[in-house]
Amino acid sequence: MLFETPTQFAVLALALxxxxxxxxxxxxxxxxxxxxxRDEQATHAAVMKEREGVFAERDARVKELEAENARLTRELDxxxxxxxxxxxxxxxxxxxxxxxxxxxxxxxxxIRGFFGWDRDNxxxxxxxxxxxxxxxxxDGFKSFEQIASLSDAEAHxxxxxxxxxxxxxxxxxxxxxxxxxxxxxxxxxxxxxx
Length: 194
Known about the structure:
Blueprint: H1 6-26, H2 30-79, H3 86-102, E1 110-112, E2 118-120, H4 130-138, H5 144-148, H6 152-162, H7 168-171, H8 174-182
Antiparallel strand pairs: 1-2
Helix pairs in contact: 2-3
């Protein structure tokens, strides 16, 4: 038998009493912690509601700016004679803002991270190596959208700036590849091999 002597029963009683005191001493006080938990839930809900308001305000502002951009582009198209490269130039100039707004939703080939990267991996275009990509980024080209919206004049100026021969961008079909990458047709973009 486990407990046979009065001393063993006394030790058992002392152990049970000590355990009871230890349990009382370590009890967190349930009502107090439940109230703190409810307060924390309310604070979290308020922060989330405020954040949603900020996001809704930001999205509304983006829609306003896109509508204003579309209105200005239409107005510019109406004021210019047909056949001029004005629309392409405006699209190239506004492509930076549009590309920045679209990068949050587009998932194809983008480099994203905590280090200020907010650009597409332009080296995925056949004919753009690492050095060329660095030169493009230094020149302000950060998205497939900007490459796809290049006019012929802008492409020739870029070729001259990068030290390429004439029509290299057209021969390697950078613009077409960039359009395919924008549409997430990653496997179909291998149009030309450099």
